[in-house]
Structures are given as C-alpha cells and as structure tokens.
Amino acid sequence: MDDSKVILRALGEIRRLAIVQAASQPQRRFLFPRPHVYAIIHRIYPILDESHGVLTEREDILFALPFTESYDVGYDFVKEIYDKLDAAWIGREELTFYQLENPYRFGDKNMGIANLRKDLVAVCRYLYLHSSFDNDFWNGFMSNAPQESTVITEPWSDEELLFVI
C-alpha cells in the first residue's frame, strides 16, 4: 500500500472514531442515524447513508470519496447484496440467508466461509437497521439461517457503541 493510501486509511480511522464518539454522547446522537453508526463501527460502506442530512449531497459525496479505502466491506459488495435482497423483495421471491450465501461460498465468487458470513451478517444487519424491506421479508430470510445470524433482526442497542476498536 502506498503512503497516500496509508494516510487516507489512518484519516478514515480517525473519522470513524470521531463519529462513534459523537454518537455515544447524548447531546450529539442526532448527528448520525443509528444504521450509519453501525456501518461505521463495523467498517461497512454505508451505501444508504451517503447523504444523511448533515451535508448537502455534493459535499457528502466529496467527503466520502477519500475514505472508501477505510471500509473492510466495500461499496461493490454492499451494493451487490442490497440489490439481491431488493430484487427478491420487489419480486416477492423467498430468499433465505443460506440462499444468499451459497453463491459466494461455492460459486464463481468463492470467497470462502471465514469472513464471508461475518460480512453478510453485518451488511444484512445494516440493511435491517435501515428498515430496508418489511418484516415478512426478514422473517422469511431468517427462516433458514445460521445461529450467528440471529443478530441481524435484533433491535439497536446503544451498548453496541461500547465494543468499538
């Protein structure tokens, strides 16, 4: 990694910690929606929060661009998962966690199981916290899912802010 990418990643980490700190203070909680904070904590590209009202759309795009390297789960993967879930929801198709996971484990993409499941759970939780899709969709999605994915549909707790870093 060249020096500029290292610097941008470090600045992204400082930005991440500042957002989490602000979100943990009662007088500043309103600055960042909880799904956005969740994405920042877990280093997921916050695709649905690219313009969450603090900045104008143009400023937000310019503000987010330099920090794309600081997300462990990048824009392309988050968008791909969102698009698959959205297509299933719009088409009223039943889609379970395992059906979403399998092409990445065994198909052309073969990402392996180690980080894949963690990333899928985190992305799906981010989308759930954003109220993406309805409860019937999420109930069907979770009907055939591994034990570690039950966190996806749990309500937000400010205790999640305690486990950062």
Could you spell the SSE succession in H and E letters?
A: HHHHHHH
Mean pLDDT: 83
- Basic shape: globular
The helix tally amounts to 7
Spans with pLDDT under 50 lasting ≥5 residues? 52-62
- Level of helix content? 40-55%
Percent strand equals under 5%
Total discrete domains: 2
Instruction: Kindly provide the radius of gyration, computed on alpha-carbon positions and rounded to a whole number of angstroms.
Output: 16 Å
Classify the secondary structure makeup into a structural class: mainly alpha
Largest sheet: none
| C-alpha end-to-end distance | 22 Å
Number of strands: 0
What does this structure look like?
52% of the residues lie in helices and 0% in strands. The protein has 7 helices and no strands. Helix 1 (3-23) crosses helix 2 (34-41) and helix 2 (34-41) runs antiparallel to helix 6. It has helices spanning 3-23, 34-41, 57-64, 75-90, 97-106, 116-129, 135-142. It is mainly alpha-helical. It is globular and about 40 Å long. It has 2 domains: 3-72, no CATH class; 75-161, no CATH class. The chain starts with a helix and ends in a 23-residue tail after the last helix.
Topology overview:
Layout: H1 3-23, H2 34-41, H3 57-64, H4 75-90, H5 97-106, H6 116-129, H7 135-142
Helix pairs in contact: 1-2, 2-6
